[in-house]
Amino acid sequence: MIFSGKAITVSQLDNGFAELNFNLEGDSVNKFNALTTDELRQAAETLRSADNVKGLLVTSGKDVFIVGADISEFGANFSESEEAIAEGVLATNKAVFNVIEDLPFPSVCCINGFALGGGLEMALACDYRVMSTVAKVGLPETKLGIIPGFGGTVRLPRLIGADNAIEWIASGKEQKPEAALKAGAVDAIAEPAKLKEVGLAMLEQAVAGKLNYSAKRQEKLEPLQLNDIEMMMSFETSKAFVAGQAGPHYPAPVTAIKVMQKAAKLDRDGALAEEAKGIAKLAKTEVAKNLVGLFLGDQELAKTGKTWAKKSTAKVEKAAVLGAGIMGGGIAYQSALKGTPIVMKDIAQEGLDLGLSEASKLLSTRVQRGRMTPEKMAGVLNMIDPSLSYDGMDKVDIIVEAVVENPKVKHAVLAEVEEKMAEGAVLTSNTSTISINYLAEALKRPEDFCGMHFFNPVHKMPLVEVIRGEKTNDEAVARTVAYALAMGKKPVVVNDCPGFLVNRILSPYMGAFMGLVKEGADFVQIDKVMEKFGWPMGPAYLCDVVGIDTGVHAGSVMREGFPTRMSADYKSASEVLFEAGRYGQKNDAGYYKYELDRKGRQKKVFDEGVWDILGDHVDARKDFEAETIVDRLMIPMCLEAVRCLEEGIADTANDVDMSLIYGVGFPPFRGGALHYIDDMGVAEFVAKADQYAELGEMYQATDRLREMAKNGETFF
After folding, report:
1. CA–CA gap between residue 482 and residue 474 (Å, rounded)
2. What region holds the 3-hydroxyacyl-CoA dehydrogenase C-terminal domain (predicted)?
3. CA 560, CA 555: separation in Å to the nearest integer?
């Protein structure tokens, strides 16, 4: 054994070869944490001075190669000064990856599974790369608000060309073997069982002089072989395009291009210095902090979900959805797509036809995009069993009620199906507004009942709220969480209250929007301001997309639930439009009107006639500062998020923020409502809220939040 550690071993093979194997103890994957990086440094030094090694084979002892850096260590690393971060990154490159690259013999890396971020950068430091047919490679750092820091922006463009490297790094996409080989990022593809054999054969050829590894290595040490015009065409054109794609809130993709452009005329060490400065600058931004926090928050959410799922005493082998249509069809599609057979029950054939049509449409789209074969589509459709009766309901493990949002109808359907389901089966309701405790009143076994709130459209929205009622037992929650996970969703467990978690927090935001319009604000201006803030759409457009009729109904539920905070002494703009028969996109007229573009898709068009309809219900139009608009909408939303946490509707601050990001598209780079408060500073946020306190309870900070401000506390 040449070197032995807890993450890396280097062993002697035949023919004078050595094998450097990544196999991090106590973890299911390999990752570049402090331990692995330090051991790689030691192993590299040992290999550099070894006199009995002719070639190096780099392998993994796990199903993946290396998934990247240990992101949980970013917080401590990024807390240093920008200069210290740059110095640390550069020092690691010189002491670790450059030493690997400069070894006095050839090296071949066997990529057996995911090689992402630092994993691919490790492979790029080797002379040759052999990739398994089931592996994927990529540099996803821009998705975390940073750029590659172990030489990715330096070595990749020298291997695959500036244009390809820009696309790979700016997009952060994972690449399949064929694409990686075509680009030149890897030198061969092999079946998993043959990977090491092919790697050794390539190493033998390099040692024998049949492969010129010195020339291959030299490409990565020298500046890019482009003239000034070629460089300008590659980098300047790409910067403009990528800036338009990424938007103003995500600087990492454009920064990556600028770093590559500065480094293009430099040798390896000079280029690595530019990379270190680039990543250090981004590491100090709130965007990077929040995107890294989002990644870690997603892991925490997944861990919580798995913990709940393990408590379930029975696996969901078969499910049922009551009520077909668009929502029921979407639930049936998602369940069948992910492998859980489902009965789709409705009282009318028209409903079943609509539900099956929805599922078929979604599957057809996958076939058209090459993501599914027609045979696979047929198999998924066969897993959806349409029914006009309750026959077979005693054979399912979980039932999702998804009928119309009417308390009386839901009571009747829930009580009816409870008589047909098996003992121990779980019954859930996909209600978005009606109290789970209230719905449970119709049941004989309320302990087996909970909410399972999907967001529309089901196939696109990742969040599922699992709502625990006062009498709901742990088995019902656990099985529902397990089913949501099996459907590929991100479940969050919340307690019952009007609007549950997400819609409750969203309601003050929409109420504040109505208040501004009542005072004469232009809803088009509000939309533009909030979209610039980072929302995928402004509140007026959101009303149209959700459906103004749906929004009015939800608003009445919230006013009833929180009369002192969410009631208004005026008729809102949405109520006026609803009474005028303008329901939004569903009938082509709401705050905007909707026309079909050349591709047959709805596009919104401003309709001056809306102001005539609103008439005397709103004050004379006047301008508001963009900052005022943001404050007026965001303060009530954030305060409601605080109340939900304080009241125990959600268990953790992470549950709150992740639910908002996955449920309503809260700007990811801002991290969520509670991250938004933290970033502003709790004391500053409270002071800002106090400036608007005269507008009512929605704008008034809680006593606990004031205490946090006084004590310098934060949510994260």
Report:
1. 12
2. 499-594, 629-713
3. 9
Q: Rounded CA gap, 91 and 89, in Å? A: 5
The torsion of the CA quartet 377, 378, 382, 384, rounded to 10 degrees, works out to 30
Q: Which three-class secondary structure state does DSSP give residue 581?
A: coil
Number of CB atoms found within 10 A of residue 697's CB:
14
Helix, strand or coil, per DSSP, at residue 598: coil
Q: Does residue 508 have a cis bond before it (omega within 30 degrees)?
A: no
Residues with Cβ < 8 Å from 334, sequence gap 6 or more? 458, 459, 487, 488, 489
Q: How many CB atoms lie within 10 A of CB 123?
A: 25
Distance of CA 392 to the CA centre of its chain: 37
Mind listing the pLDDT tens digit for each residue in 614-657? 999 999 999 999 999 999 999 999 999 999 999 999 999 999 99
Neighbour tally for 581: CB within 10 Å: 11
Predicted model pTM: 0.90
How are the residues of the chain apportioned to helix, strand and coil, as percentages rounded to the nearest 5?
55, 10, 30
The β-bridge partners of 18 are 12, 56
Domains defined along the chain, listed by start? 3-284 (3.90.226.10), 315-496 (3.40.50.720), 503-711 (1.10.1040.50)
The encoded tokens of residue 525 equal: 């201006």
Q: How far is CA 494 from the centre of its chain?
A: 20
Phi, psi (degrees; rounded to nearest 5) at 703: -60, -40
Please identify every stretch of the chain with a pLDDT value under 50, giving residue numbers as ranges.
none
Which tokens hold the place of 594? 């909707």
**Residue 490 and residue 301 in contact, taking contact as beta carbons nearer than 8 Å:** yes
Please name the residues in contact with 284: beta carbons below 8 A apart, sequence gap of 6 or more: 78, 82, 85
Q: What is the largest CA-CA distance in the chain?
A: 90
- Please compute Rg for the chain using Cα positions: 29
Identify the bridge partners of residue 467 per DSSP, sorted by sequence position. 451, 494
Tell me the catalytic residues. 453
Which 8-state DSSP code applies to residue 278?
Answer: H
Q: What pLDDT score was predicted for residue 225?
A: 87
Number of Cβ within 10 Å of residue 490's Cβ equals: 19
Strands 137-138 and 115-116: parallel
Burial of 184 (0-12, 13-18, 19+ CB in 10 A): middle
Q: Are strands 384-387 and 342-345 parallel, antiparallel or unpaired?
A: parallel
Distance CA 673, CA 716 (A): 12
CA proximity to 542, closest of 579, 574, 580:
574
| Nearest residue to 328 via CA among 313, 306, 315, 347 | 347
- Give Cβ neighbours of residue 370 (< 8 Å, ≥ 6 apart): none
CB 583 within 8 A of CB 574: no
Sign of CA dihedral 165, 167, 172, 178: negative
Q: What is the pLDDT of residue 75?
A: 86
| 620 touches 569 (CB < 8 A) | no
Please state, in angstroms and rounded to a whole number, the distance separating the CA atoms of residues 435 and 414: 14
Torsion of CA 211, 212, 214, 217, to 10 degrees: -70
For residue 349, count other CB atoms closer than 10 A to its CB: 11
Secondary structure, 3-state, 287-302: HHHHHHHHHHHHHHHH
The DSSP code for 61 is S
Per-residue model confidence (pLDDT) at position 251: 96
Provide the sign of the torsion angle of the four alpha carbons 212, 213, 214, 215, taken in this order. Answer: positive
